[in-house]
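<instruction>
Derive structure tokens from the sequence

<record> Sequence and structure tokens follow
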Amino acid sequence: MNTPKNIVGILLAAGNSHRFGSNKLLHPLNDQTMLSITTKNLKFSLPNSIAIIRPGDQKLKTLLTNEGMTVIECEHANNGMGASLACGIKSSMDAGAWLIALADMPFIQTATINKVVNAMKAGASIAVPEYAGRRGHPVGFSQEYKHLLAALDSDQGARDILVDNQQQITPVFVDDPGIQTDIDTPEDLNDKPFS
């Protein structure tokens, strides 16, 4: 097991919010925006983090820059989450590992993020949080997956990589329903795990 020297957080924020009806990442939540919360939670654990957005999304770029994030505008964001993830990997190929976080999952506890980061620091090849028998986010990948991740170009994200490398996954058991709670519609906020 190799211990990664630097772990880079990648926040995927290039979705189009079709089902939400407006830009969900700018939706008010606990006196902040959803994006502010996910950004702060990720940067708390990994100050060296980057955010992937759609080209020309000035509002998100300004907010993220103000939060101290490095912002990458992904030319192929319309191809889906995999393409955005590949943009993040390509912009940080020298990282020792990556933690992939989704900007529409504001209820993940910072303790959970820290546990996944610690699993990566301990040499996990892939680290995935698990709650009540189900996996969630964020997911950690070591350097050995950089070429597979950089080649992604669909809406599946890294799902196929996880399926093909089941034996390499280190489960990180957490007491955090937020790892499975993404926000796609305004109604999803009614069932949030905490306020």
